[in-house]
């Protein structure tokens, strides 16, 4: 086979008989590489969309978790507040009970004293009536 003088000069004809600087094999491989790169870029784009959706979903879940956490903290604080209020109310009621018991004791002592005075006065009246 005779060497092609154009091939030696780095010029080649493609399947459409167009003059090319690259060899047909190199041109074909370059085209294949270009297609593979395009497919790779498309897949990377799809991957980025999927990851973006996942990040949005995780952000939403994080916000919901934070909201629920704040609700739980609020409920816990409210429960503590109610417990403290009940404890304070219980102490107030116990103080009121103690005060009423002291008042009852004073009334009982006063009743006993008045009963004694009444008995003495009745006895005095009886003696006064008997003397007349």
From TrEMBL:
Question: Which residues, by range, are in coiled-coil regions?
Answer: 79-117
Q: Has the keyword Coiled coil been applied to this entry?
A: yes
Q: Which Pfam families match?
A: IFT20
> Is this entry keyworded tRNA processing?
no
InterPro entries given in the database record: FT20 (IPR028172)
- Which terms in the GO cellular component ontology are assigned? centrosome; ciliary basal body; ciliary base; cytoplasm; intraciliary transport particle; neuron projection; non-motile cilium
Task: Could you list this entry's UniProt keywords, alphabetically sorted.
Answer: Cell projection, Coiled coil
Q: What GO biological process terms does the UniProt entry carry, in alphabetical order?
A: cilium assembly; protein localization to cilium
- Where in the cell is the protein located? Cell projection, Cilium
Q: What is this protein called?
A: Intraflagellar transport protein 20 homolog
């Amino acid at each position: 086979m005779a060497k092609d003088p154009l091939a030696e000069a780095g010029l080649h004809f493609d399947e459409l008989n167009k003059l090319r600087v690259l060899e047909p094999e190199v041109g074909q491989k370059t085209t294949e590489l270009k297609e593979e790169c395009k497919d790779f870029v498309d897949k990377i784009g799809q991957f980025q969309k999927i990851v973006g959706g996942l990040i949005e979903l995780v952000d939403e879940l994080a916000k919901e978790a934070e909201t629920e956490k704040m609700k739980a903290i609020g409920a816990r604080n409210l429960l503590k507040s109610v417990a403290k209020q009940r404890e304070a109310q219980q102490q107030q009621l116990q103080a009121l009970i103690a005060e009423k018991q002291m008042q009852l004791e004073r009334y009982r002592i006063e009743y006993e004293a008045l009963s004694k005075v009444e008995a003495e006065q009745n006895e005095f009246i009886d003696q006064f009536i008997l003397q007349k």
